Amino acid sequence: MLRLEEAVFGIPFHRHLGFKLTGAAAAVSLATISVFALLSIRSQREHAIGEVIRGAALFSNTIASSTRDLMLEDQRHDAYRIMEAIGRLEGIEKVRVLNKEGRIMFSTNARDIGASVDKDAEACTACHAAGQPIVAPTTSARSRMFRANGHRVLGMVTPIYNEPACSTAACHAHPPEKNVLGVVDIGISLKEIDESLRTQTLRMAGGALGAVIVLAALVSAAARRIVFRPVAELVEATRRVGHGDLSSTLAVRSSDELGLLANSFNEMNESLARTRRDLEHLTGDLERQVEDRTAALKSAHEVLARSEKLASLGQLSASIAHEINNPLAGILTFAKLMTRMLETGPPDDATREKCLKNLSLIQRESERCTVIVRNLLDFARVRPLELKMFDPVRALEEALSLAAHKMQIQGVTVVKKLEGAGQVNADFGQLRQAFMNILLNACDATPAGGTLTLTSHFFSGSREVEISVADTGSGIPPEHLSRIFDPFFTTKERGTGLGLSVVYGIVEKHGGSMRVTSRVGEGTTMTIRLPLAEGGAAAAT
Question: Are both 264 and 300 inside the same structural domain?
Fold first, then answer.
């Protein structure tokens, strides 16, 4: 389960809520059981010590009683032998007899005989208070605990009272007012009792620890089954939902908070799945609508682009008609002249020479018309890119020749600052169309007497060519400058808004870029930058 939790939650097991809860339960259980164990051990110890004290008091009284008659008959040596025999019993540390002055009259340890003890010492305070003996001390007052030979010893003193038989005996001269003549002091080893209590304490501690471990294991097992496994399943299901899997559901195993949480998760998951299905249907409908609208806009764009070209052709009609009319007039004139010359009769050498000269002029003017018509057809034709290597200045020059008549009519002066631009890999007709649209826009924006400046420049570092057309027209307002390349945006009354959009598309298809700068009342500059072809070095003019 720890591996499952670590895999699900992604954190070390010692930081899991289950580990903390189990640890807390173990700590509380350990503290509770320890308190009860300590209280139980203390109670047992006190009970055992009490029993030992009562036994020692009984044993001490028995010694005093068993030697009473011998002491009354002044047979103290026999009494001392009895005490010495008792002192050799197992568990008896010592047996002593002290007189009322604290002198040791007998001791199982012969070195103590004749020595005196301090009445204020611990061994004597049980029977003395303020320097005077206590007539009848309690059993607990007569006992004391001390350490000897590395273990605890229970000391018990029993007073020897001055009985009438003792005070009147011939061997004693104890006045009747003396209540206590001495004490019997015995020492009983508590080594076995302490070892028994220690063993019992260790057993109880081991039992408490085992109980804590068992309880912690039970709490952990119950918590894992009731809490942590459902939580782990919920986390795993939540992660699957986060990755987009809405098919999983949780088993509701209880009616408590976790059961309610699992039920709420299932309802949320079902709601999300239903919402996703609705969104997918809606997205599918939107995609179809967008495709339909895109197709319609593309068709409209093509129609408008073709209309833009037709509009441009209409603007060129006057200049094209003028260009074609001149050679046609020459052809017609020379044809009529040759007809008259040949009507007079067979031509002589001089007439034949004039006819050949006129036919040469007719041929040259016819070829001129053919070039003009071919250029016009190339401009109007919609076709894919036909890439070839050429100098883009040539396309600009040809577009300028087509628009020259319109500029001449409007009184616009053209200033050329053109240099060899190098070779580009492009479609000649489409670049010419782009330059034609720019020139016509510039011509429309330039008033009579204005100037168009054509500039080309080669950048050796970036290997690009830049061609600019600058007019002295009215300029473009700042609020319109960012929209001039948008399809269908125009400020002309009869414009389609596709002229510059077509230019931008052509330049972009050739991997180039466009830049427009304009100031209202001063004019506009449109710049086309195209990449040079590999090996297309600039040729200076």
Answer: yes
- Nearest Cα neighbor of 347 from 359, 330, 361, 365 is 359
Considering only the C-alpha atoms of the chain, give the largest distance between any 2 of them, rounded to a whole number of Å: 211
The one-letter amino acid code at 84 reads E
Both tokens assigned to 463: 């290997």
Instruction: Assess whether 307 and 448 both reside in one domain.
Output: no
Residue 63 lies in a domain: no
Q: Which of 4-8, 10-14, 45-49, 474-478 has the highest mean pLDDT?
A: 474-478
Which residues, 6+ apart, have CB-to-CB distance to 380 below 8 Å? 309, 310, 313
Dump pLDDT digits (tens) for 128-144.
554 555 556 677 777 78
Residue 388 is classified by DSSP as E
* DSSP one-letter code for 103: B
Classify burial at 234, counting beta carbons within 10 Å of its beta carbon; exposed 0-12, middle 13-18, buried 19 or more: middle
Q: Is the pTM of this model over 0.70?
A: no
Which residues have C-beta within 8 Å of that of residue 221, sequence separation ≥ 6? none
- Within-domain flag for 26: no
Instruction: Name the helix (H) or strand (E) containing 258.
Output: helix 257-343
Residues 529, 531, 536, CA angle at the centre, nearest 5°?
125
Tell me how many domains the chain contains. 2
